[in-house]
Write a structure and sequence with these properties.
The complex is a heterodimer.
Chain A (H helix, E strand, L loop, with lengths): L3 H31 L2 H22 L5 H19 L6 H17 L8 H8 L6 H13 L3 H7 L4 H17 L12 H20 L13 H14 L4 H14 L25 H16 L5 H13 L1 H4 L4 H14 L3 H15 L1 H9 L3 H4 L3 H13 L3 H13 L4 H10 L5
Chain B lengths: L1 E8 L1 H6 L3 H20 L3 E6 L7 E6 L2 E6 L8 E9 L3 H9 L5 E6 L5 H7 L1
Antiparallel strand pairs in B: 1-5, 1-6, 2-5, 3-4
Classes of the chains: A mainly alpha, B alpha+beta.
């Protein structure tokens, strides 16, 4: 190419593209062979830096990923030799070079080992609070500051949490292998939980007004899709993806043009994404074939009933209440208990719902905002206005989102 | 463990205090927040501060004192109020900080009183 500026632009674009499309795969490949995620990350970062320097001069290599892999691997070997670490890493990495070069020659892609990476990140030996962040950082390449904001943690603390987790993986000798069949269900639950936690962190942020707290919903969906491709036979994997797609389908409808919060039942179904709903329904149907219901399939099924309002114009609360009953039996979380009470109140009246809400131990819901929002709504329906006003106040006081806060203030029976 | 939640406010936030409509809006969110804090039993102390133009800053150096008009630092956002809360850890303190109906909240751990200080306070 004669134009050096154009060549530089093209090189930068190629580096960005490789980072976006292949970061997780490259890191998984290097981590699996070095068993040291932190070292693999450093080496990969250096390889990307080297690409930014080299490619504008030499042109983009025919196989950018193979180039990055070979470069990163060379750095890793140097690093290990320099540290004189007695490990299997060097021979593993030497073998990996040949592997990488061979792959570079052939017209095949290098193996996708991100599934191993996902399972390592959600390993029971890893601090539960570090699992989701670790996944986001290693599989998707998100930076610690962004992850910290989403989880409401100090960036330096998040950095330390991630560093500790990686040291633990290295020093505890956690195997970069998929769990055995008998361990699989339990280990898979942890992976699904971690992905759902990332989605939740994005979902809470209805406003999306703070760019630093931009939701991780897109990233969580990406992880969900990846897992669904890698483990197509697992019903709960499909269930989780269906659940996230159902929620995501409503994103445009959750706010008015001026940014006001719109509760689910008042959302304009025309603003729901048909394509996402269809995809979710198909996944859920496929999952149901396995005849092995689980928490995420049930949660997705509840959202599926809500989605049917687009066709039927009504919500089958009886069905939703039944599904919540099943969910409470599988996983009696505070969220499921409050959801069940809400469904029962719609199916059988405010008093029945209130009765169920009262059964939840007070300590568990003291600071749980959705509980107070529902309590306020039910008390208002039962005409217990003083108590309703107090509950609305509590729900507003515990709220993190300005538009939800305003919504609740409008609902409250009188000025508070 | 004690933390201070320091609320920084912009000139327009301060101005809103004297605008009846905006004041009502703010209080509609702030009073429930204050009540939730109190009901959780975490509040140790707290106060809202008058706007920065009411501040007077002293500088005491070499036995001299200098009095100047205005706040210590001339930043766009100024300290508008604070709560001292007693919670188990930073994570909980950040949760309470995030519920404040405003834009900027600095969360800082308080120094635990040393024995000599405790003796004075008791």
């Amino acid at each position: 190419m004669s134009n050096p500026e154009a060549q530089t632009t093209e090189a930068h674009r190629a580096v960005e593209q490789a980072a976006r499309n292949s970061y997780g795969r490259l890191l998984a490949f290097l981590s699996a062979r070095s068993r040291d995620m932190a070292a693999a990350e450093d080496a990969l970062a250096e390889a990307f830096r080297a690409a930014l320097e080299t490619w504008p001069r030499t042109g983009v290599p025919e196989k950018p990923e193979a180039w990055l892999l070979v470069t990163a691997r060379r750095r890793l070997i140097d690093q290990f030799r320099h540290a004189r670490v007695e490990t299997e890493a060097v021979p593993n990495l030497l073998a990996a070079t040949e592997e990488a070069q061979r792959l570079g020659d052939l017209d095949t892609a290098f193996p996708d080992e991100r599934l191993k990476l996902l399972f390592i990140c959600a390993h029971p030996a890893i601090d539960a609070a570090a699992r989701t962040p670790l996944m986001l950082q290693t599989v998707l390449g998100l930076d610690a500051a962004r992850i910290a904001s989403a989880f409401l943690v100090k960036p330096t603390a998040m950095g330390q949490r991630l560093t500790r987790a990686k040291a633990k993986i290295r020093d505890a000798g956690i195997r970069f292998e998929l769990p055995e069949t008998k361990e699989l269900p339990q280990r898979l639950d942890a992976v699904l939980e971690a992905i759902y936690a990332a989605y939740g962190s994005g979902w809470e942020d209805v406003a999306g007004s703070d760019p630093r707290r931009k939701g991780l919903a897109v990233e969580a969906l990406e992880l969900g899709k990846l897992l669904s491709q890698l483990m197509p036979a697992q019903a709960e994997v499909q269930g989780l993806l269906a659940l996230m797609l159902h929620c995501e389908a409503r994103r445009q409808a959750r706010r008015t043009a001026s940014g006001e919060y719109v509760p689910l039942l008042e959302q304009d179904v025309a603003r729901w994404s048909k394509a996402m709903i269809e995809e979710a329904e198909q996944l859920l149907n496929e999952a149901a074939q396995a005849g092995n219901p689980g928490r995420f399939q049930l949660e997705a099924a509840i959202q599926s009933v809500h989605a049917q309002r687009a066709r039927t114009g009504r919500v089958d609360w009886e069905a939703i209440a039944l599904m919540y009953e099943g969910l409470v039996r599988l996983a009696p979380t505070v969220g499921a208990l409050v959801g069940r009470a809400a469904a029962v109140s719609e199916a059988h009246g405010a008093t029945a719902g209130w009765f169920q809400l009262q059964e939840i131990p007070g300590e568990a819901v003291k600071d749980y905002q959705p509980y107070w929002a529902l309590a306020a709504h039910l008390l208002k329906r039962m005409q217990r206005l003083d108590e309703a006003a107090a509950a609305y106040s509590r729900a507003i006081g515990l709220c993190e989102d300005p538009s939800t806060r305003e919504f609740l203030a409008r609902q409250a029976p009188r000025a508070i | 463990m004690q933390f201070s939640l320091l609320f920084y406010q912009s000139p327009s936030d301060f101005a809103a205090r004297t605008d009846p409509k905006k004041r009502e809006e703010f209080l509609g969110s702030f009073l429930p927040y204050m009540k939730a804090l109190k009901d959780a039993g975490v509040v140790v102390a707290g106060a809202g501060l008058q706007p920065p133009e009411t501040a007077t800053t002293l500088r005491l150096r070499n036995g001299q004192r200098q009095v100047q008009d205005g706040p210590y630092a001339d930043t766009k956002e100024q300290l508008g109020g604070f709560f001292v809360i007693e919670v188990p850890d930073l994570d909980t303190a950040l949760e309470w900080g995030a519920r404040f109906p405003g834009e900027w909240v600095e969360v800082r751990p308080n120094m635990p009183p040393i024995p000599e200080e405790r003796a004075i306070l008791s």
